[in-house]
Amino acid sequence: MAHSKKEVAFQSLQIAVLTVSDTRTPENDTSGDALVEGLNAAGHQLAQRAICKDDVYQLRAVVSQWIADEQVQAVLVTGGTGFTLRDTTPEALSPLFDKAIEGYGELFRQLSYEEIGTSTIQSRAFAGVANRTVIFCMPGSTGACKTAWNGIIREQLDARHRPCNFVEMVMTDRSVDTVCGPRG
Predict the structure, then answer these.
(1) Backbone phi and psi for residue 106, each to the nearest 5 degrees, phi listed first
(2) Half-sphere exposure of residue 165, counting CA atoms within 13 Å on the CB side?
(3) Beta 3-4 vs 161-162: how paired, if at all?
(4) Do residues 82 and 50 touch, judged by C-beta distance below 8 A?
(5) 50: helix, coil or strand?
(6) Which tops the pLDDT comparison, 64 or 7?
(7) Quick check: 183 pLDDT over 50?
(8) What is the pLDDT of residues 108-150, one digit of tens each?
(9) Is the alpha carbon torsion for 26, 124, 45, 174 positive or negative?
(10) CA nearest 49: which of 4, 15, 95?
(11) What pLDDT sits at residue 128?
């Protein structure tokens, strides 16, 4: 069971949000809005926000820039994780990862199953770490973004969450080389 250690201080992260879509605009990007609202409510800062067409090379260019920016500690990507011909987010971004976070996709589909049943198998939600930047990719629906943020990402980007979180690994000073603190 997850728990929080009160003696560990909250650390605000700089988080970038990318919406992958051929049709969304800043005016109708409710999925990106939900992620920005979630990260702001949790006490984090929006580093950058973009909407990008579902194109392998454009996606890699945007996310590669954020991975290289030491001020960006996490990236949230919504969209492009389905099975249509245009859904290329996994193919675009997985090659950028130094390490995959296998459990994220598994847990996302488990949580999603409770909401949408077997349709969750059509989600290729995935995550990874690149240059000490954690990247979470989720489906493009607003509901899926809320499920991912509230059910997984919010805790994993909170230094108080124990036994493990990604905050120590992504902090700019890069002085701590662990993800999990003491288990006790």
Answers:
(1) -65, -50
(2) 23
(3) antiparallel
(4) no
(5) strand
(6) 64
(7) no
(8) 999 999 999 999 999 999 999 999 999 999 999 999 999 999 9
(9) negative
(10) 15
(11) 98
Task: Report CA-CA distances (Å) from 165 to 65, 102, 123, 127.
Answer: 24, 15, 24, 14
**Which uninterrupted H or E stretch holds 76?**
strand 74-78
Distance set, CA 25 to CA 28, 64, 66, 80, 112 (Å): 5, 22, 21, 15, 26
Angstrom distance (rounded) from CA 91 to CA 85 = 12
Q: How many degrees, rounded to 5, is the angle at CA 107 between CA 104 and CA 110?
A: 150
Tally of residues, the chain = 184
pLDDT band at 19 (very low <50, low <70, confident <90, very high): very high
Q: How far is CA 14 from the centre of its chain?
A: 12
CA distance 75 to 114: 26
Q: Is the dihedral of CA 64, 66, 72, 75 positive or negative?
A: negative
